[in-house]
UniProtKB/TrEMBL annotation:
GO terms for biological process: flower development; vegetative to reproductive phase transition of meristem. SUPFAM superfamilies: PEBP-like (SSF49777). This is CEN-like protein 1. It comes from the Eukaryota. InterPro entries: PEBP (IPR008914), PEBP-like_sf (IPR036610), PEBP_euk (IPR035810), Phosphatidylethanolamine-bd_CS (IPR001858).
Length: 174
């Protein structure tokens, strides 16, 4: 009997970006027009140009969460020497709400892959130390999710999802 492989492991999110974890909070990421992010699916750059709606589950509205969107394949999957590139960071998101209720530490930067297929990863962390305790990084390049999590006392993610995107040629836009 074959064993199901976790899509985050298959996509090398677990291993390259974060350590193995058990998702305990529901997170739904939706780009307009109604394109929900699903692990390993491809989205066109024209669809992901504006920030998505990110709904956070959980059972406690008093809990605070940090959302990170990162590209571990920057600037190219074959040579990701600026790994990771931080595209978006929102902190202090109350549980059972969405990212618009949080504090945007790093504005949403639209993904623009130039070479190869890039993975874009959304990670959700529960803020163990409460609100206004997470400090954003000074720059987007060479971001490290593990180091950031340790420095801010976040621990392992409570939810994650990723999608793939590549440069959109004129023929693919039709």
């Amino acid at each position: 009997m074959s064993r199901m492989v976790d899509p985050l492991t298959l996509g090398r999110v677990i291993g390259e970006v974060v350590d193995s974890f058990t998702p305990i909070v529901k997170m739904k990421v939706v780009y307009n027009p109604n394109r929900q992010v699903a692990n390993g699916h491809e989205l066109m750059p024209s669809v992901i140009s504006a920030k998505p709606r990110v709904e956070i589950g959980g059972e406690d509205m008093r809990a605070a969460y940090t959302l990170i969107m990162t590209d571990p394949d920057f600037p190219s999957p074959s040579d990701p020497y600026l790994r990771e590139h931080l595209h978006w960071m929102v902190t202090d998101i109350p549980g059972t709400t969405d990212a618009s209720f949080g504090r945007e530490n790093m504005e949403y930067e639209s993904p623009r892959p130039v070479v190869g297929i890039h993975r874009y990863v959304f990670l959700l962390f529960k803020q163990m130390r409460g609100r206004e305790t997470v400090r954003g990084p000074a720059c987007r390049d060479n971001f490290n999710t593990r180091t950031f999590s340790q420095e801010n006392g976040l621990g392992l993610p409570v939810a994650a999802v990723y999608f793939n995107a590549q440069r959109e040629t004129a023929a693919r836009r039709r």
